[in-house]
Amino acid sequence: MKNNLKIDFSLTCDLFGNGQVSPEPSPYDLHLQTFFPCRSSNGEDLGEVGLSFRGGEKNGIQGIFMDTIVRCPRTQIGESLSGWKNPEMIVQWAEESHHIVHRWFFALVKGNLEKQFT
Q: How many helices (H) does the chain have, and how many strands (E)?
């Protein structure tokens, strides 16, 4: 993850000092998800942008799956579409959210991994 996705996740070496537990985690049993508050280009609450990683298998090949997610603002969660004031607000939110996850994805895969997508 550090080399290909520019993500460094580490735990204190005190957990592994006696040699009973390997400091190298199994990437195929990985389950990690986190969210960060975000704002639109005009400063409005856009919700939260998140990253989710999990180990898995596709076509017999084990790997790590990554999702980039934008959750709508908490004030909108559970409300009907009327909470958005008008349909244009939904479209604007979706467009700004797409720009964020697009930028995050390509910032994370920049380098050797990016070459596989272009």
A: 3, 3
